[in-house]
Amino acid sequence: MRQPLVAGNWKMNGSRASIEVLLSGLKSGVQAVKVAEVAVCAPAVYLADVQSQLSGTAIAWGGQDLSTEASGAYTGEIAASMLNDFGCKYVIVGHSERRAYHGESDETVAKKYKAARAAGLVPILCVGETLEEREQGITEEVVARQLDAVIELEGVDALADGVVAYEPVWAIGTGKTATPEQAQDVHAFLRSRVAARSEAVAAGLRILYGGSMKPGNAAELLAKADIDGGLIGGASLSSDDFLGICTAANS
Ligand code: 13P
């Protein structure tokens, strides 16, 4: 059985003050979350605060990006070992915003996946098509290429140490959620692609859905056979909304 994972991606939002309020709300409500594992991915500068507030709780935390390199002259970059230093369990790699605004290629994302794994972090690999790509009917081709980059660099077993998040770009921050059927189709496709190389890795792989997931639509998405949790943007900035999604995984 795959334990569902509900992970918040705060993106570039919040302040020390607002994060303290958000985390205290999450800490007091997390006991009601019986089934899902819960995590938050914070801006790197707040990870020390997150660590001190979440240590000893049921909530894990992580970064939103990392360098492909282990250390050295890479101004502004954050190494996997630095995320480790602040107790991170997870790190998001290849979010569509990084791909679109920072030119991250599939190869770069695969190297980030490798760097995370080498440091013992659990990478959350984001894949997803744009609206144009969906309309062209090439959704499967796009997500296959994004997934295959990791498999080609590291082998299919590398996916046993990570999580995949299907995030259709057209559903991110737009209020347009993929229907449960649309999401399930892509999740099943991704799992079958992994299964073609390793049935065991495919069976254990958690594939999250991301894109305008809210307390009101989470239960029907999470009810689908191949949807193993969510990667939550906007709704993760409110403890009530985020916990609402986490508890939707209970039923
Ligand atoms: P929204 O939940 O705001 O659509 O963002 C999804 C996302 O990009 C999570 O990584």
Any overview of this molecule?
The protein is an alpha/beta fold. It has one domain: Alpha-Beta Barrel (TIM Barrel). It is 43% helix and 15% strand. The protein has 11 helices and 8 strands. It has helices at 16-29, 47-54, 80-85, 96-101, 106-118, 131-135, 139-154, 180-195, 199-204, 215-222, 239-248; strands at 5-9, 37-41, 59-63, 90-93, 122-127, 163-166, 206-209, 229-232. It has an 8-stranded parallel beta sheet with strand order 7-6-5-4-3-2-1-8. The longest helix is centred in the middle third of the chain and has 16 residues, at 139-154. The two termini are 15 Å apart. It binds 1,3-dihydroxyacetonephosphate.
Summarize the structure.
By secondary structure, the chain is α/β, with parallel strands linked by helices.
Task: Name a few traits of the molecule.
alpha/beta; 15% strand; binds 1,3-dihydroxyacetonephosphate; TIM Barrel; 43% helix; globular; 11 helices
Write the SSE topology:
Elements: E1 5-9, H1 16-29, E2 37-41, H2 47-54, E3 59-63, H3 80-85, E4 90-93, H4 96-101, H5 106-118, E5 122-127, H6 131-135, H7 139-154, E6 163-166, H8 180-195, H9 199-204, E7 206-209, H10 215-222, E8 229-232, H11 239-248
Parallel strand pairs: 1-2, 1-8, 2-3, 3-4, 4-5, 5-6, 6-7
Helix pairs in contact: 1-2, 1-11, 5-7, 7-8, 10-11
The chain binds 1,3-dihydroxyacetonephosphate.
